[in-house]
Amino acid sequence: MRFDEAYSGNVFIKSKQDYENAQAVIYGMPMDWTVSYRPGSRFGPQRIREVSIGLEEYSPYLDRELDDVNYFDAGDIPLPFGNAEKSLELIGGFIRQLLQDGKVPVGMGGEHLVSWPVMKEVAAVHKDLAIIHMDAHTDLRVDYEGEPLSHSTPIRKIAEHIGPHNVYSFGIRSGMKEEFEWAKANGMEIAKFEVLEPLKKVLPKLEGRPVYVTIDIDVLDPAHAPGTGTVDCGGITSRELLASIHAIAKSGVNVVGFDLVEVAPIYDSSEQTANTASKLIREMLLGWIKE
Ligand SMILES: [Mn+2]
Fold first, then answer.
1. Packed helices 115-125 and 84-100: angle between N→C axes, nearest 10 degrees
2. Ligand 1 centroid to 228 CA: how many Å?
3. What's the angle, vertex CA 239, arms to CA 265 and CA 139, rounded to 5?
4. Ligand 1 centre and the CA of 227: distance in Å?
5. CA neighbor of 166 nearest in space, from 121, 117, 129
6. Calpha distance 142→251 (Å, rounded)
7. Which residues have beta carbons under 5 A from ligand 1 (an ion)?
8. Which residues of the chain have pLDDT under 70?
9. Under 8 Å between Cβ of 72 and 15
């Protein structure tokens, strides 16, 4: 793969731009064509990169700095506007290549549907994969008004693919009654309203297992992250989300890939959401990409 083709401008702070030696590869998935409410997340990845320049390179939480991690920012994957099926195929192909090269995928969305082909490819390589999902929304719909390719469906798709008992959702406060009932009937754990405390109970169960973590920025309360398409009040604080990232870092799970999705700069007039997202990515890189 020629990454210079995908490269589109600035990079996440301290990216080494050395693919061969990179442990992790950051990439943007600038797609927002299946959203049920407000579009705009296609511009998320670029804005997160731009504001990342304002980050400190050192994490006082983890006593580690970005120079200690080798990562490569591949830019945004070029995706055909309006064609969800083709976009997901392209994302899947990109991830297949990264995994073949032994890289940890670090994705930035984009709407949440982009996580589906990523999780599917990761599951093909890492048997016994578990998913940690943080979100305001269940994302367990079969379809949205008849359309199965919708940003309200990715967790249902991966749950059916790897088994619902391997998927753990946290911070959920919005969804149809049927979605909650489906989860309960199929042995899938949904932690409502909170993230950190239920996560601490689940992490020991996942010790030693490969885990993919998918975070929708709207798990945060809109007071902490207003710049997203489907805002939903009653969410967690950025402090709780950081503590949750650090709890995963300290646990015995093996994080084999992760993403942060649904940042929509157009609703982010203070740029608080993009700045928060860039710090979350810093902490995930420092906490989850081990030596
Ligand atoms: Mn959501």
1. 30
2. 9
3. 55
4. 12
5. 129
6. 33
7. 135-137, 216, 218
8. 1-9
9. yes
**What is the average pLDDT value for the chain, to the nearest integer?**
95
Angle, nearest 10°, between helix axes 177-185 and 154-162? 10
Q: Residue 291's pLDDT is what?
A: 77
Tell me, what's the pLDDT at 8?
A: 46
Task: Output the CA 241–ligand 1 centroid distance in Å.
Answer: 15
d(CA 127, CA 84): 27
Nearest to 117 by CA among 183, 176, 34, 190: 34
Alpha carbons 277 and 228: distance in angstroms, whole number? 11
- Which residue ranges form the domains of the chain, and what is each CATH number? 24-288 (3.40.800.10)
Do residues 91 and 118 lie in contact, with contact meaning Cβ atoms separated by under 8 Å? yes
How many angstroms is it from 187 CA to the middle of ligand 1? 21
Separation CA 105–CA 186 (nearest Å): 29
Summarize pLDDT for 264-280 with one digit per residue, the tens: 999 999 999 999 999 99
